[in-house]
Specification:
The protein contains 18 helices and 8 strands. It is of the alpha/beta class. The strands form 2 sheets. The protein has a 6-stranded mixed β-sheet, sandwiched between helices. It has a two-stranded antiparallel sheet with strand order 7-8. It starts with 15 loop residues before the first helix and ends with a helix.
């Protein structure tokens, strides 16, 4: 596909004042610290984020829709290659792992239903290797059972977290909506009360249930479930979760942006000390490899790569070109090369006015004595922040286009 990507307006999003404010924050944060120590910590943080794994276990009664939820969290339909097998009856007869298609350090585990002949409740956790998972999602498509509560008790004993999730809420609402005086809010409250009563009767005190639909992650309680998971995961695993989940809402995109802003600060600082050199033919100092790698990563986080767009097109049942037509400012991940970045630098406002130069030179004592390193920080930070701004806008356009179908 030939994309007309607007690169001449780059710089409108990130102003001189923003660069100044960022450097002032860094100056305050790094007071009494030296550049080598700070950059070493940044590299360690980036390595940890890259290598941190997230293991999500999805379990519950047979036929509740575990496999469909696994696919939804991976941004996939139930019918494409690599999807977890789904069906109205129990299709999971052993614990199956499914890597995230874009972030392979995230694994969804589709566990057999508790209480099936081969997985009786008392032996369940031992057989499915409970110690491997960061948290459990216990799901039901109608009502929770004593086995679910028994499982939750055993998980709690092992100091693991679990979450009760009622799936297929959209189907229940569709059925109820045909009744006179229908109210979605009252319908949801009725479903929630019913589930909590089931759990209370089975021995669970103060149960909390999240109502979700695998087809509409932006609706019902899924955003609340995501927020709860983020609050209860440690910092690195929370970031991994945010980056890997589909961009199903504006709020989800904002969370991705905030996580990537922290990432950009770290890679910009690293550019100070990784042999930054002038870009051939330009009065710009930066590390091109850092820019290329970071831009590709940002595109994948926001779903602007070929594979992610193809999966989204399958989910909404429309040609992928219809989604790509919503991308106005950004390249796809596959289009980002060293040559592309040099071309972008040439055409961007930052190369014409170099507003970062006058700002960064005032902060050389903070960033180190090498002017090249300081300029590399400013250039990398400025370019990537603008790029992130454009990618977020295009990702929102793609999301809106998909939602309109």
């Amino acid at each position: 596909m030939s994309q007309q990507i607007s690169r001449t307006t780059m710089g409108a999003a990130i102003t001189k004042n923003m660069v100044t404010e960022e450097l002032e924050k860094l100056q305050k944060d790094w007071e009494n610290k030296n550049l080598p120590d700070v950059t070493k910590k940044c590299q360690e943080d980036l390595d940890l984020l890259k290598n941190t794994t997230l293991e999500i276990a999805i379990t519950g009664v047979s036929g509740a829709g575990k496999s469909s939820l696994v696919n939804a969290l991976r941004g996939m339909t139930d019918f494409e290659d690599g999807a977890a097998e789904t069906g109205e009856t129990e299709t999971t007869r052993k614990r199956d792992s499914y890597l995230h298609p874009t972030f392979p350090n995230v694994t969804m585990w589709d566990l057999p239903g508790i209480g099936t002949p081969n997985f009786e409740a008392k032996e369940y956790l031992k057989k499915v290797k409970f110690e491997k998972y960061d948290f459990f999602i216990i799901i039901a498509s109608n009502r929770f059972t004593e086995n679910d509560v028994l499982l939750a008790r055993e998980i709690r004993k092992m100091n693991k977290r679990f979450y009760y999730v009622r799936t297929r809420v959209d189907s229940s609402i569709d059925s109820e909506s045909k009744k006179p005086n229908y109210s979605e809010e009252k319908c949801l409250e009725k479903i929630r009360e019913y589930c909590c009563e089931n759990l209370t009767q089975a021995g669970e005190s103060n149960p909390r249930v999240f109502l979700i639909s695998r087809w509409h992650l932006d609706k019902y309680d899924f955003p609340l479930l995501q927020e709860t998971l983020e609050d209860e995961l440690d910092d690195l695993k929370r970031d991994v979760l945010i980056l890997s989940l589909p961009a199903f809402s504006k709020e989800a995109l904002k969370k991705k942006r905030a996580t990537m802003e922290a990432y950009i600060r770290k890679v910009a600082l690293l550019s100070c000390v990784i042999g930054a050199v002038p870009v051939p033919g330009l009065s710009v100092v930066c590390d091109l490899a850092i820019l290329v790698g970071s831009m590709i990563h940002i595109c994948k986080v926001f779903g602007l790569d070929e594979d992610s767009l193809n999966r989204l097109a399958k989910r909404v049942g429309k040609p992928v070109d219809a989604l790509k037509s919503a991308i106005k400012k950004s390249p796809l991940a596959s289009q980002i090369t060293t040559e592309f970045v040099i071309d972008m630098l040439t055409k961007s406002v930052v190369c014409g006015t170099m507003i970062t130069v006058e700002v960064v030179l005032d902060f050389v004592p903070v960033l180190g004595s090498l002017t090249g390193g300081a300029l590399s920080f400013g250039t990398t930070f400025y370019i990537l922040k603008n790029f992130l701004h454009d990618v977020e806008k295009d990702a929102e356009n793609v999301r809106a286009k998909a939602a309109a179908f």
